[in-house]
Design a protein that fits this description.
Elements (H helix, E strand, L loop, with lengths): L1 H22 L9 H17 L5 E6 L4 E6 L6 H16 L3 H9 L3 H6 L11 E6 L2 E9 L5 H11 L6
Antiparallel strand pairs: 1-2, 1-4, 3-4
Helix pairs in contact: 2-6
Amino acid sequence: MHQPSAGLALTGLCAVVATVAHAQLLTHRDLSYSIAKTIAETAVESCTAKGYRVSAVVVDRDGDTIVALRSNNASPHTMENARRKAYTANSFRTSTADYAKRFASNDPLVLQQVTLPNVIAIPGGLPIKVGDDVVGGVGVSGSPGVDEPCVQAGLDKVADQLN
C-alpha cells in the first residue's frame, strides 16, 4: 500500500523540479544576419559617400562577428579596429566615444579593462539595443571623427526592426 503513495510523491516531486527548471530558462532576442548585414552595409555606404574608405563589423550579444565588410581600398587595420569597437560597445553597453572619454580621464576601471583582449578605447562603436537589452555591437574604422555617425546611419536604417 505504501508503494503507490511513494510513486505519487515521486511524480509530484518531478513535476515541481521540472517547473522550477523551466522557470529558470532565459529568453532573449538575437540579432539576425539580415539586420546585421543591413547595419554594416549602410554604415559603409554612409562613410563612402563622405569620401572615406572604411570597414564595418557587427557582433552578436556574445561578441562574435556576424558581419564584417571592408570597402574598396580601406586600410588593412580598419577591419580589426572596427571589430574591437563593436566588441567594446557590446561588452560595456556604451558608445566607444564615451568609453574613450572615461579612458582619457584615467578612470581606473577602464585603464584595467583596456588590457583585456579585443577591448579598445577609440570612438566609432555603438551597442545595438532592443529596448534596454543589448543584442550586439557595431563598429566602423577608417573615417576619424565620422565613424560614429556612419554607425548611427546603419542603426537608423533598421530602427523599426529593433523593437
